[in-house]
Amino acid sequence: MINKEPLSQSLEDYLETILELQTKKTVARSKDIAEKMDIKRGSVTGMLKKLAQNNLINYEPYGYVTLTPEGKKIAMEIERRHIFLKDFFARVLKVDETIADQTACQMEHAMSKQTFQKFKNFVKTIDACPNCRPDNN
Amino acid sequence: MINKEPLSQSLEDYLETILELQTKKTVARSKDIAEKMDIKRGSVTGMLKKLAQNNLINYEPYGYVTLTPEGKKIAMEIERRHIFLKDFFARVLKVDETIADQTACQMEHAMSKQTFQKFKNFVKTIDACPNCRPDNN
DNA sequence: TTGATATGTTTCACAAACCTAACTTTTGAT
DNA sequence: ATCAAAAGTTAGGTTTGTGAAACATATCAA
To answer: Which of A34, B42, B77, B111 is the most exposed place for a label (fewest CB within 10 A)?
Structure first.
């Protein structure tokens, strides 16, 4: 398979949001995407078209939005990262939940697959080590 | 002092680059900024004007560029983060130098001051703990 | 001093993502 | 079945950051 252009941070966020809605409400609607991402409805339409062009979602005008297998794969990867990073910031670093969430949202796009894997291994080791818990202030 | 708009990631990168050049070559020139950031000279001019408007650099057409105290303060903060994060990825996670550098460059903008502080404390604790070194693969 | 070359600037164009406001389609209550 | 409200789309703007290419200035060797 040819190496595709990497997705923009924004498009990745859309995929992630669509996955969440799909999971929680069985179906993703334009309005809910807009609300969740704090973006106007009109802007969402344009981005949905882009995602559809990239075969990442199934999109028909005025219809529901669903992830294609490829889109879902990417969305799940982002979601996993998000969850992991948020947990790291909140539980390990004791950062406030909201901030942890925001920070995770920024960083989930920044690491390569390999780097993220190493980070996960690292946190796993830390978690298994009782005397390396800093008291974060 | 009133809370200013936060700088864009891009403008922060410019400040960081200017600081590096200023340090290494005593003076920052447009061409060197362009080369280091892999951006065309013409684009640099526009961004220098923005930085000057924000009182972060001293800029005269056809002149050298220097950081104002305020600009230097910000640049140093970014640089510190960069160095710290790069070190974390390279030394602790054993990520390849180049990748570590790239990743740091993305992430240095993503954390709040507080969060970054907690992260630093965390790494310090880890470093002091001999048996929590994962063998990253 | 002069003029080629390097450096800096300007202008115009462009892509990505967004917004606003008007318009269209769908939905749901009656 | 009808028609208002809700949801979705479209068209036209805006902002940010960039590139290309022409133009302006500075520098330096002869």
So the answer is: B42
Structure tokens at B96: 């390849």
Distance from CA of A9 to the nearest CA of B (A): 12
Q: Per residue in B17-60, pLDDT tens?
A: 999 999 988 889 999 999 999 999 999 999 999 999 999 999 99
**b (16+ CB within 10 A) / e for B51-76:** bbebebbebeeeeebebbeebbebbe
Assess contact for A80 and A123: CB atoms under 8 A. no
CA distance B9 to chain A (A): 12
Mutation site for A-interface testing, chosen from B103, B135, B137 by largest number of A Cβ within 10 Å: B103
Has residue B136 got a pLDDT over 50? no
